[in-house]
Amino acid sequence: VTPRRFVRLANPRLSDLITEGLGTDKWVADLELLKGLEPLAKDDEFVKKFAAVKQANKVDFANYAKREYGFDIDPNTMINTMVKRLHEYKRQALKILAVIARYADIKSGKISADDVMPRTIVFGAKAAPGYYLAKQTIQLINNVARVINNDPDVKSKLNVYFPWNYNIRLAQHLIPATDLDEQISQAGKEASGTGNMKFALNGAMTVGTLDGANVEIRERVGAENFLLFGVTVDEVDALYAEGYEPKKYYEADPRLKAAIDMVSKGAFSNGGRNTYAPLVADWLTKDWFMTLADFTAYCEIQGEIEVLYRDPLEWNRKAVLNVANSGYFSSDRSMEDYLDRIWHTGPLA
Ligand SMILES: *Cc1c(COP(=O)(O)O)cnc(C)c1O
What we know:
Blueprint: H1 3-9, H2 12-22, H3 44-69, E1 78-83, H4 92-108, E2 119-124, H5 132-149, E3 158-161, H6 168-174, E4 180-183, H7 195-201, E5 205-208, H8 214-221, E6 227-228, H9 233-242, H10 246-252, H11 254-264, H12 277-285, H13 291-309, H14 312-324, H15 331-342
Parallel strand pairs: 1-2, 1-4, 2-3, 4-5, 5-6
Helix pairs in contact: 2-3, 3-14, 4-5, 4-11, 4-13, 10-11, 10-13
Bound molecules: pyridoxal-5'-phosphate (PLP).
């Protein structure tokens, strides 16, 4: 991804801090220089400045979301983002089912309101017009947002927003303000992904599967600085081979069962039981991308994430290390790679 758009233009505060930390602005055209930030992850003063940049970006985003969409986002909550095309393999369904399970836990008192780490979940996605299950998923996310955001029992604990028309402009406002980025596609399906790179470069932590460029991001930033969960490519293949049965997972995890039952019984369709019938039928009988198989592990890692996020210095230290080790993902490096290995031209000048 290009550091001019996705760091220098989108995130001027972080850009200034990087320049201050490195003592030069040459990183804008030579992104591997970010590696020089690595020692600063041990410098509490620098990490606190980094945290202040993120916080200021969150306030900016909350103002932008109010102005553009009329949303009331609390910038003092964790901003947890999932933005990308809507597709079954990308598994927005996994995220929304986990949100529903969380909502049910807070409602039932299984988690006391005081123990909940406040989160704002932001989705952004478009679907092809004829892609029925994708459109149903968009409808479900919007209706979960409507129900949760109007429920006083979870107010300021859990909020869901779905700004429409996800595009580069929204991306440039949202990515610098994100604490936690979701890259939760089924292992083996994503060719690379570039959203994951934009977020790591802007100091978000990633919760993700071993898929696409998540694998390279994790190798570069360090396994301890990447929030990994889920079945691997080999495990996916083994599950297909033995005859994947999503219903088993539904029966085995009461939280998953409760979440799906809420959808099928009309909790997000004013009591209507037919609204999401095709989506629910797909989950229980097909679930080709194994959302149900990864649900339990996904909820577990989210629990670990909350523990980590409660320690801001540790969280931000890890986020700084994500920035410092993501220079490799510059489009400049990628172009040089093409010139050298594919086109055999070398640079023109
Ligand atoms: C980066 C970007 C994408 C690609 O996101 P992935 O998570 O890699 O699928 C899609 N849409 C917009 C507007 C983007 O900025």
